[in-house]
Write a structure and sequence with these properties.
This protein is α/β, with parallel strands linked by helices and 187 residues long. The chain is built from 7 helices and 7 strands. The protein has one domain. The radius of gyration is 17 Å and the shape is globular. The chain starts with a helix and ends with a helix. It is found in: Membrane.
């Protein structure tokens, strides 16, 4: 509920309805099944410092949320802009008419990465909200992530879909999309 209040205020202040912005809601996680949701950023920071919360997927997929710049977020009082990086997959608030998720990516893998890449290609500005946050709670692995981890054919199929998506990006956006191919090859 707190995230919604902060996001709603930011949507109005940052004129989301009339600009190409993707408002990033910084993501955190806990390994505990029961948690009192922090009622303020100060309380969340205290929980981070105590080790009750962590930046999202810090231990398995740091690249997914690293561009959020959590060190800057700790002291930020105003929204700040970040740049796209390879494998960036933040949680965002965007206009209703933004590009849709690519339907090739169902199940586990690359759905948010591809979406953020498409937003970047369409020149959306990534703006981190300084007083909003979300917390991912632990749960059993999904059927799809279990398949991804255990089934080589699933991983091969996902790799093929990623390559197809990147080729489509190159055809659609031309020279501007080369950075996505280069980033993928270097990661």
């Amino acid at each position: 509920y707190l995230v919604f209040l902060f996001a709603r205020k930011s949507v109005i202040q940052l004129d989301l309805a009339n600009t190409k912005k993707a408002l990033i809601v910084p993501a955190f996680e806990t390994l505990r099944y029961r948690l009192s949701f922090p009622k303020s950023k100060a309380e969340l920071l205290s929980m981070l410092d105590m080790g009750t919360l962590f930046t999202f997927r810090y231990h398995v997929w740091t690249k997914g949320h690293a561009p959020t710049n959590f060190a800057k977020w700790r002291t930020a009082t105003t929204p700040y802009r970040v740049e796209w990086e390879a494998d960036f997959e933040p949680y965002v608030v965007v206009r209703k008419d933004c590009p849709e998720y690519d339907r090739r990516f169902v199940g586990f893998g690359w759905n948010k990465v591809a979406h953020i890449m498409e937003l970047d290609a369409q020149e959306y500005e990534f703006t981190v909200l300084p007083n909003a946050y979300m917390i991912h709670m632990p749960h059993a692995p999904s059927f799809d992530i279990t398949k991804f981890r255990s089934n080589k054919q699933y991983r091969i199929c996902l790799k093929t879909l990623k390559e197809e998506f990147q080729q489509d990006m190159s055809r659609h956006y031309g020279f501007a999309a080369l950075k996505y191919l280069t980033a993928e090859n270097n990661s």
